[in-house]
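Run: sequence + flavin-adenine dinucleotide -> complex structure.
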Amino acid sequence: MSQNRLGRAVVIGGSIAGLLAARVLADVFSEVIIVEADVAPEGSTPRNKVPQSHHSHILLERGQKTLEVMFPGIMDEMIQNGSIVTDFTGDLKWFHFGQWKKRFHSGIRMVQQTRPFIEHHIRRRVEGIPNVALQYSTRAAGVVLSDDRNTVQGVQVRNEATNGEETIMADLVVEASGAGAQMLKWLNLDTDASEGVPIQLFYATRFYRTDGVDRGWTNLMISAQLPELPYAGVVIPFENQQIGVTLGGYLKGPPRTDEEFEQIAKSLPQPDIYHFVQNATPISDLKIYKISSQSRKRKDIINKLPKRIIMIGDSYCRFDPLYGQGMTVAAMEAELLHVMLSRNLTDKTMDSAIRDYWSMLPALTDDPWNMALVEAYRHPGITGARPFGIGLQKWFTKKIYQASAHDSSVYLRLAQVMNLTRPSSVFFKPSMLRKIIRKT
Ligand SMILES: Cc1cc2nc3c(=O)[nH]c(=O)nc-3n(C[C@H](O)[C@H](O)[C@H](O)COP(=O)(O)OP(=O)(O)OC[C@H]3O[C@@H](n4cnc5c(N)ncnc54)[C@H](O)[C@@H]3O)c2cc1C
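>> structure
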């Protein structure tokens, strides 16, 4: 990587996306400041300002690989500290589109840990980078623009403890403050800035402990099938003998009590998750999160933004969390930023590097975006303009899911596409097409 040569970058938000952005910016800028509204976290506990940190998170294989490049040794470190290692297709018992998938060992490694645990490990690595500073209890409250309003020149911040205000000047500002990011509002660009799929999904999670009895599976998933089966459920073990049980429901109200949580588990098309919660000991309260829509910034936003601003993570695109993509896509975006900014960068060429980053974001997020979109649009109650060809896509993906239940080669490709290690175009290879269309 190149030597430090540019001035200062400021990152708004010190969560997964912000920390990963800081990691790559540290190779290019002499100084990187992360401003984080939350207090300094203690160890790997859920954070108030990241409410999804109470919910089960999966790190896809592509995310693991990208993290490993950014922080060599981090995956082994997490495993030594308690992450659970499983095989995606071998250790997961998965009911999907009316069938249990035939399990086999694929070598697609899952490394399972809670979200606070992974954030903690990433944060520790970033804290060790000498030219990165993390300022906690510091909320970004606006941006400073050049006189002609064409360039972002800094960030206005407020100290949450003292209420003191300050301006931090910057050569690049990175918006990484999550789904509630205010950047476009500050720039008066928030009208019609996003495309979205109003999935109206609730997430309900509770952690359990068991007596360690062998149930014949390590992970368990029962997928929704819209519109008939609006609920989904997943059971995943994490570090410290915690087993997360998450239920999700599209266009449905969340459970208000533990009993309602169990009733939803009972209403799933297979009884396995219900049996699990009946026989396990709860070790946490029930936590609820509601996601009104999967949303992404429109492509033309790039033409409206001032210079020297980029977005990363949920501030740019937030996915249906049941697909487990957010952290991995944030890592891929950081990787893209790294590639763009490493190309013989000078202060003069930075603007074109930033434009290239923006122009490549839609393609980078298309596969994960479409995966959830196609499933959501099976439900007539999920409103929104259907993209051209959606009927064919729904038919084809259903064929993939059905064929993958009993054909290991189709399941392997599906698992790779879901883990973002292969593009969805692999399904269109003639040999694959034949298997998908032949099998029902
Ligand atoms: C219920 C749920 C389950 C999910 N499950 C998965 C999963 O299984 N796998 C997966 O990969 N992803 C999952 N995701 C997505 C994942 O949580 C995010 O994609 C990931 O955390 C990256 O988010 P982020 O860093 O962009 O934003 P966040 O994690 O939301 O962090 C934003 C940060 O910005 C700070 N902040 C906010 N405003 C300001 C401000 N004005 N100034 C300074 N700081 C500010 C916040 O305090 C916070 O630290 C899930 C999401 C949800 C909601």
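>> summary
The chain has three domains: 6-50+116-196+296-373, 83-114+197-291, 384-438. The chain has a mean pLDDT of 96.
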